[in-house]
């Protein structure tokens, strides 16, 4: 039974983000954020509408979701500048880049296509039909929970072969994932540069290519990523002789073989590094080389692992080995974020067809994830996992998961709503509507 009681948004963040839209759509967006967080079961847009108490306005909620997709950059700017700024401490801002697919099938779903499936599983297919999202996340260090990835903004990648099926009014120009990645970093750098902090980007190895590395080097952004074993590295050119005409050399004349460097028994060092939340000892080599896709010199780090050597690099030659290895490990938190986006927030389940609507719904899931992490930042860990007492088979000492944080915030939002109705007066009609609403959410 739909409730006639429409709750007011109880979190100022909802109103801050909704301010990027016009007043009427912004009001609905603030309530939709509440619905995204309170909805249970399958996370379809209709479920969000019911959880937000907007059933009487359901026809207008779908254009609101599309408006979010068209204004995603403006909303993400408010999220970064007005909500996340206090969490960024230290001399640098670290961003993470990667892409992830969401399964979606239907003849009327615009822009969906066949994409590589990075997590096929034991019996899964190597391909998935649906959407692919290039996501930019902010990496912040929690004093107790370690590094956390907070998704900021995403771009939907549509294969050139699938663009023709998109309605002309909503058809974006074709762009590769690499081009989208550069655009995302340019957007973030435009605001982060005002903070007076160095900007670092840690990316998946697929983005360690010239179309990404060269533009970001010109921006002054340091990129850290995995290096191919067969990378065509060159030596560092000698210092320029004073008075000699012509521009100085950028690349050396000698080839540098990573395989030969790794096979040579000399030059190895050991050190302690904090990776994946643990202090471990690593055996490594490091040196400076030049690489044409990077547009100049890079810091190379070879790590001797039990399964063989692996190579990483940073475009800042003054970076330490710890800077590079720890940032590479921190990138895994974005992979964990993708898992939570799909399993907890329900990204990809919204059952909308148009390109702007799909973009808007994905961002609502991503921003709900980010806001949940920010809300839980200073919460007591024991309070976040209090429900585990009903599950004696669970480990009470396990750190709070994203699902735990989301559940705790749901309880607080509902408690505030109940207090607003019951605590101030005894209107039986409103109490009855609230009871129906709570029963609907629990069902």
UniProtKB/TrEMBL annotation:
Residue intervals of the Transposase IS701-like DDE domain: 19-272
Xref: InterPro entries: IS701-like_DDE_dom, RNaseH-like_sf
Top-rank taxon, per record: Bacteria
Keyword Zinc appears in the UniProt entry: no
Any Pfam family: DDE_5
Listed transmembrane segments: 132-153
Designated name of the protein: Transposase
Species of provenance: Gemmata obscuriglobus
């Amino acid at each position: 039974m739909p409730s006639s009681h429409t709750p007011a948004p109880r979190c100022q963040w909802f109103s801050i983000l909704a301010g990027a839209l016009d007043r009427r759509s912004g009001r609905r967006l603030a309530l939709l954020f509440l619905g995204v967080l309170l909805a249970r079961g399958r996370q379809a847009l209709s479920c969000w509408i019911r959880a937000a108490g907007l059933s009487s306005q359901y026809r207008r909620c779908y254009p609101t979701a599309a408006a979010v997709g068209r204004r995603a950059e403006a909303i993400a700017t408010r999220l970064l500048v007005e909500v996340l700024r206090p969490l960024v401490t230290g001399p640098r801002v670290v961003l993470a880049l990667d892409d992830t697919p969401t399964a979606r099938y239907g003849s009327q779903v615009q822009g969906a296509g066949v994409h590589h499936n990075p997590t096929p599983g034991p019996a899964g297919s190597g391909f998935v039909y649906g959407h692919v999202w290039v996501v930019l996340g902010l990496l912040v260090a929690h004093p107790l929970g370690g590094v956390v990835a907070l998704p900021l903004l995403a771009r939907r990648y549509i294969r050139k072969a699938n663009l023709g099926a998109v309605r002309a009014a909503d058809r974006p120009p074709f762009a590769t994932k690499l081009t989208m990645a550069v655009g995302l970093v340019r957007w973030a750098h435009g605001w982060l540069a005002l903070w007076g902090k160095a900007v670092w980007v840690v990316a998946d190895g697929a983005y360690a290519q010239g179309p990404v590395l060269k533009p970001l080097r010109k921006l002054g952004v340091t990129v850290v990523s995995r290096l191919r074993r067969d990378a065509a590295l060159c030596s560092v050119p000698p210092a320029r002789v004073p008075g000699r005409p012509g521009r100085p050399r950028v690349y050396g004349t000698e080839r540098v073989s990573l395989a030969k460097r790794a096979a040579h028994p000399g030059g190895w060092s050991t050190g302690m590094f904090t990776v994946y939340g643990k202090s471990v000892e690593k055996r490594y080599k490091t040196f400076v080389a030049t690489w044409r896709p990077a547009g100049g010199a890079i810091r190379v780090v070879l790590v001797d692992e039990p399964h063989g050597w692996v190579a990483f690099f940073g475009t800042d030659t003054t970076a330490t080995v710890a800077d590079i290895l720890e940032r590479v490990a921190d990138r895994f938190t974005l992979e964990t974020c993708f898992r939570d986006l799909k399993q907890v927030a329900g990204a990809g389940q919204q059952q909308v067809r148009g390109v702007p609507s799909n973009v808007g719904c994905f961002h609502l899931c991503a921003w709900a994830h980010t806001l949940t992490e920010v809300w839980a930042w200073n919460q007591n860990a024991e309070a976040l996992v209090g429900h585990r007492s009903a599950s004696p088979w669970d480990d009470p000492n396990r750190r709070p998961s994203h699902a735990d944080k989301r559940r705790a915030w749901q309880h607080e939002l509902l408690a505030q709503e109940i207090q607003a109705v019951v605590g101030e007066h005894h209107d039986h009609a409103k109490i009855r509507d609230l009871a129906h609403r709570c029963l609907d959410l629990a069902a």
